[in-house]
Amino acid sequence: MSHFRPILLGIAIALSLGYMAWALFVSDTQHGSTVCQAFDIIVADSVRQTFVSTEDIRRQVAINGMEPQGRTMDEIDTDNIEKIVYNNPMIREAQCYKTNGSHVRLVLYQRTPKLRVMGPRNYYVDTDRQLMPTSTNYAAYVHVVTGLTDHTLAQTDIYDFVDYIDNDDFWNAQIEQIIVHPDTTIDIVPRVGNHILRLGKLERYRQKLDKAMVLYQKGFSIIGWPDYKIIDLRFRNQIICKK
Fold first, then answer.
1. pLDDT per residue over 158-213, tens digit each?
2. Could you tell me the residue ranges of all domains in the chain?
3. Contact status, residue 180 vs residue 148, Cβ threshold 8 Å
4. What is 38-110's CATH number?
5. Which of 41, 90, 97, 196 is a Cys-bridge partner for 54, taking CB atoms 3.0 to 4.6 Å apart?
6. CA-CA distances (angstroms) from residue 101 to 37, 68, 82?
7. In terms of Cα–Cα distance, which of 169, 203, 166 is closest to 184?
């Protein structure tokens, strides 16, 4: 009888594998015919900014005829739901998938503004250096640039300048507005004081801001600063203060 044992073992293994395959098939079939119980929308970074709401996204999906709740799971095309959501200019990333509990889950990440351009045309530049529309739902707390007519400059030199400011605790807190003149020279409106920092062209802006820092820390403690209207930083090795 010992020579029958390998045969019986092989039959048992084959039956087990066959049962497992059948069970998986039945499970998939049942899952596919199951009706979607809920459409879960999660805006993952909603604590930081609220350009979109779950209600906005749910409405957008429904208007395009892709509301999943009430449909069978195999009818639902999660890729198409993602494509619809990407039409929203505030969305940076969308992940849509089906859960084992017969839910469809949509996880969203919003675009993050770096700076805001205000003028005849209002828009943000996001952290990927792409233009981004403003929103009536939410205003991001970012540095404001006025007078700018060339969006390419906003995505390059101005972006680099704002990024430098953002990473400096003092200047990030001190600078309220960046004014770009038609010749692309720059004036800075500080939060504290009634003066303008005249930066001129953006070249050497780090050295110019360093000079202004020395003036704030040492010079104004001696000469005072409330009466000065313009602090001119354009020239090497000197600062010109005008009343």
1. 999 999 999 999 999 999 999 999 999 999 999 887 889 999 999 999 999 999 99
2. 38-110, 113-242
3. yes
4. 3.10.20.310
5. 41
6. 8, 14, 20
7. 203
The label of the residue with tokens 């070249």 reads: 203
For 189, what's the count of Cα atoms within 13 Å in the CB-facing half-sphere? 9
| pTM of the shown model | 0.79
Contact 124, 112 (CB under 8 A): no
> Which tokens go with 160?
């680099």
| CATH top-level class of 113-242 | alpha beta
Enter the tokens of residue 171.
Answer: 């200047």
